[in-house]
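Appendix B. Raw example, untouched.
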Amino acid sequence: MSYPSTVQAIVISRTGGPEVIEKREIPFSKVAPDHLVVKVQYLGVNFIDTYYREGLYPPPKFPFVNGQEASGVIVALPTDESVLNDPDYKKRGYKEGCRVAVDHLGSYAEYVSAPWNTAYVIPESVSTLTAVSGLEQGLTAISFMEEAYDVQKGDIILIHTVAGGLGLLMAQLAKSRGATVIGTTSTPEKAALAKANGADHVILYKSENTVARVLELTNGEGVHAIFDGVGKDTFESDLVMIRRKGTLVSVGNASGAVPPFPPIRLMQKNVKLLRPSMSTYICTPAEAFYYGNALFSLLANGTLKPQVFKEYPFTAEGVKQAQVDLTSGKTTGKLVVKVSD
């Protein structure tokens, strides 16, 4: 199969608000010998897309093709013989025409060229839409709940923004591991969704005192671990709600980055604080193979069930609206962009 010399892509030429998002025809990047090429069918929408667009994470160059998550069909395999003979490559089972989900910065285009170890073969029992809906957030949930804090049976876990795409998968996974799950969200409708996906207790942070409720539910001890994607607005209360020797995992910056603070504050309860990234947990081919197998096994057996909030068109306006909706706090589950059939 072949790919074109130019592609339609979602790009930004400067950082700023949603208005900087454009759809433009650009030259298709030169394909590196260790890359495979994927014809994209779906794109996943993530907060990291807004971080690059706003400049919180500086784009490496302009024009910058945004997006880190895609799924589709392989149209070209690597050409590097050392790659083709690599045992780690061979056990992936890549073939032209097979479906893959891709974790690679610069994916918002009709075709994406990506390093082979960033692509995950989609099993027959999992749809291409489910794969893109579960890739980034599923890999994040699994690696964070195994390495940042290894969730165990009997643990009490707090998940902020539990009705979002990542929050729902974390609730499902923590519940499957035998933990008691406490979540925070904004509306009764979101709370009902979270409870249907594994949350035992859901706190409506706009009308309830989150700290008082968590301490009430834990008999004043606090929770074993907090997974916090909010950032600045919840960090101080996290330090109150975590128990002695607990673990605070700073997952994201939805309200802004956590301000600098003196580490000595962790000493009061011997708290562990982490700000991990999924890409640093899943860096080597062996790690990618391990976590990819774990993810697609959990998707196939129904332990993880991504909830798609809405499909958006592959247009500048469609992607703008997706990012506005994502950051509004009004969505639940996963937002996706449909590129092709």
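End of appendix B.
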